[in-house]
Design brief:
- There is one protein chain.
- This protein has 222 residues and is of the alpha/beta class.
- It has one domain: Vaccinia Virus protein VP39 (Rossmann fold, 3-Layer(aba) Sandwich).
- 36% of the residues lie in helices and 20% in strands.
- It contains nine helices and nine strands.
- The longest helix has 14 residues.
- It is globular and about 45 Å long.
- The N and C termini lie far apart (58 Å).
- The structure holds S-adenosylmethionine.
Length: 222
């Protein structure tokens, strides 16, 4: 495994999922609020999240909070995103190594999503088509959530999508915040066969934003 400026390149390690689960649990013991769950997402949740990515997606897909790579792997397995277009941000170095091992070809950035703007700039990424987030927003500080969402919504184009799963019934991103970014959220469904059961949310720009753009006066002919 090699690292360069926090960027993990594909490694020759071949860590098995059981090792990954142990590393995840260790990380939870160190920082329970940051991990948000005792265990990584199960296969069904990971596949359901991956299936929310539009089939016609193109360009970079950004995953936040990659953990042990359960969702990263499911995204690759779904076949809609090429490994070189998948960029994963995870702050736990040992988990970054596991993702790089399980998902060769993906770009794994080991860093704090709170510094997302700088991390993306350093990686030369200015636009992403979709953000897939596993970050535990409900147990994170509001100021941190704002920094992350500010940067993430900032790199999403008008037709960009933000996918997030959560363990509660309500949207993990508050409505007031979404409004400020002209985003709207919809729960896509629950995955009950996961520990814990999880709901998947999909956020897009509001219709208002689209009509606002459409309502702009046409440019005058020269
Ligand atoms: C609920 S776990 C999900 C992991 C994985 N995506 C899965 O589905 O199993 C949340 C992950 O987000 C990571 N995380 C939490 N806060 C973060 C931050 N500020 N920057 C980057 N990663 C963060 C944690 O280290 C953890 O791996």
């Amino acid at each position: 495994m090699t690292t360069h400026m926090g960027l993990f390149t594909p490694s020759t390690l071949n860590l098995r999922p059981i090792t990954a689960d142990v590393e995840f649990f260790r990380a939870w013991l160190r920082r329970p609020r940051r991990m948000g769950s005792l265990v990584p997402s199960g296969r069904r949740l990971a596949a359901a999240v991956a299936a929310c990515i539009r089939p016609d997606t193109s360009g970079v897909v950004l995953e936040l909070g990659g953990g042990t790579g359960s969702i990263t792997r499911a995204i690759l397995d779904a076949g809609r995103v090429a490994p070189q277009n998948l960029v994963v941000v995870e702050r736990e170095a040992r988990l970054c190594a596991i993702i790089a091992s399980r998902c060769p070809g993906t770009r794994v950035i080991c860093g704090d999503a709170g510094d997302l703007r700088a991390l993306l700039a350093r990686a030369g990424i200015s636009k992403v088509s979709t953000v897939v987030s596993s970050l535990p927003f409900l147990s994170m500080r509001e100021s941190e959530n704002r920094r992350i969402l500010d940067a993430a919504f900032g790199v999403l184009p008008e037709d960009g999508e933000f996918i997030q799963y959560t363990y509660g019934p309500a949207s993990p991103i508050p409505r007031e915040f979404l409004k400020a970014y002209r985003m709207t959220g919809k729960r896509r469904g629950w995955v009950l066969l996961n520990i814990p059961a999880a709901a998947i949310w999909l956020y897009r720009r509001t219709a208002d934003a689209q009509s606002h753009i459409a309502a702009q006066p046409p440019a005058k002919a020269a």
